[in-house]
Amino acid sequence: MVDGADADRSPTPATEPTSRPARRQRRVSMADVARLAGVSSQTVSRVSNGHPGVVEDTRQQVLAAMKQLGYRPNSAARALKSGEFRTIGVILFTLSTTGNVRTLEAIANSAAEQGYAITLLPVAAPTQDQVRGAFTRLGELAVDAIIVIMEVHLLDAATFTLPPNVSVVVMDSDAGDRYSVVDTDQAGGARDAVRHLLDLGHETVWHVTGPQDSFSAQRRTDAWRAALEEAGRPVPPPLPGDWTAESGYRAGLRLAREPECTAVFAANDQMALGVLRALHEHGRAVPDEVSVIGFDDIPDSNSFIPPLTTIHQDFAEVGRRCVEGVLRQLRTDTMERGTTLVPTWMVRRESTAPPPSGR
Fold first, then answer.
1. pLDDT for 264-279, tens place per residue?
2. Which member of 61, 103, 199, 256 has the greatest number of CB atoms within 10 A?
3. Whole-number average pLDDT of the chain
4. Cα-based distances in Å from 184 to 172, 261, 305, 315
5. How far is CA 99 from CA 36, 171, 296, 313, 314, in A?
6. Following CA atoms 348, 356, 279, 226 in sequence, which dihedral angle do they give, to the nearest 10 degrees?
């Protein structure tokens, strides 16, 4: 018989497991990687920063340890310690042109060789306010220096100005001695194109221009005209283009109807492609009746029919000099001024020849 006390006593419930938050796993440190790889923490730091002065076997050993431990360098902490973000901002107005794409690729490759990343900031319209706004945004994104690909005229400012106390290189602009400018020798390349055609025996050279707001197009057109005038040759009316093959085709349709046209200088290879198509459709053989030369030496120009004679731009060298210039300003804490021109050279292929009367 169970007494009253025992009858009133409630059974003790089983103890339920208490839910506790899992302890966060400790972040893998540089010292952990160094111990696993059998090297010093300084060596791990040099590998994570992309420093070139590390033996390749050691580099691979450290990278393998990083992968095994899941180590990710803390770039924010490194920036706070060193005062460097190891990042270059790039401002540009369009990625639709071959020149800008290849220049941006060259800048990215050159920056990576120096242990820097790039942050790209396209600007919607070429205005002074848009450029200032881009500088502000890049400052918030924490970059060390800025490269501006300024290939078009600003719409709202006669004089281009940049914020002071910024390490900056401007590419393809008319900033002159006010900033550090890197550009292809546009004028020299255009003169070489014209002289090549005149030396072949052509009386004059017709020209398909780039856009009116383009610095490069303006320099090529000015040099084309000056080369003809210096040689005492007639200057035909230039035909407007916009860098596209379609605009070159439209210009080519007009040139095909000009019986006196025996030589054409197109301001870029894409427009030269359009000119070739228009001449072919109208039975004007290239180069037997009309010679055509382009500018840029894009990878496909050797596959045109016929393969295109053109002026080669060294985009890799332009990118390298932009990065070197802006990093030099960072290291010396000085604002550089003046223009650096990267030489061009002619690539002779089958689209140019003496005129019919000279054969």
1. 999 999 999 999 999 9
2. 103
3. 85
4. 8, 29, 27, 8
5. 46, 12, 8, 9, 10
6. 60
